[in-house]
Amino acid sequence: MKADDQGRKERILVIEDDNALRNGLALNFRAQGYEAICAADGDEGMRRAFDDQPDLIVLDIMLPGWSGLEILSELRDRGERTPVLILSARNKTREKIEGLGLGADDYVTKPFELPELLARVEAMLRRTRVDRESEEEVAFGQVVIAPARRSVSVGGEEIELSAKEYNLLSLLASSPGRPFTREEILHRVWGWDFDGTARTVDNVILSLRKKIETDPSNPRHIKTVRQVGYKLDR
């Protein structure tokens, strides 16, 4: 049984209006040992996303009522950090970037191979388990990263970070002083099949500096390593 630290089955919410796909995914998730709950439209999906406390959400974009992107935006605006895997027939780079920019953790296009989808779900939940189990906070300067809550505070005040901002900052903080190349950051934060560019990393770094650095134009912590990428200095 896939269980959290309270001993309950990990709960996956499937928000999908295609009955066959929704029921098929739920059946396969249950066969893997998860608890699966379902919503057939955006309105029900929005309610369940907040009321049922899922550990992960599989979210279609094209839905009756609230769209998948509207649900995702609302979740992140309210500070919910539940991992979200977007499932969509849309395969355009612009739409992938939009979904990831709103705070999705992964993006799978239809049609897809079920074993790959199950592997992605397990990888996302595994990262969540590691965060829950790691109670040790990481501190540098006025910044504190609390992995158990996936939160970051500066000078004692919690700040709002997108999923990608949090994951990138956590990656840099996992090995202070070690340079990470832009390509490595792309692969480890966005995923191996993400077709963005180094500029994608630069934009998130710029946003992070504005949120955690006293002087973003002369950063103390998130340093540029010329012709390589970035590192974090304590």
3D architecture notes:
With 234 residues, this protein is of the alpha/beta class. The chain has two domains: 11-132, Rossmann fold, CATH 3.40.50; 134-232, Arc Repressor Mutant, subunit A (Orthogonal Bundle), CATH 1.10.10. It is built from eight helices and twelve strands. α4 links the parallel β4 (84-88) and β5. α6 (163-174) packs across α8 (198-212) and α7 (182-190) crosses α8 (198-212).
Q: How confident overall, as mean pLDDT?
A: 88
**Into which percentage range does the β-strand content fall?**
15-25%
The CATH homologous superfamily of the largest domain corresponds to: Response regulator
CATH topology of the largest domain: Rossmann fold
Broad structural category: alpha/beta
Q: Which spans have pLDDT < 50 for at least 5 consecutive residues?
A: none
- What would CATH call the class of the largest domain? Alpha Beta
Annotation, overall tally of beta strands: 12
- Our count of helices gives 8
Distance from first to last alpha carbon = 40 Å
Reported for the largest beta sheet, the result is: 5 strands, parallel
Query: Could you give the order of the helices and strands?
Result: EHEHEHEHEHEEEEHEHHEE
Count up the domains.
Answer: 2
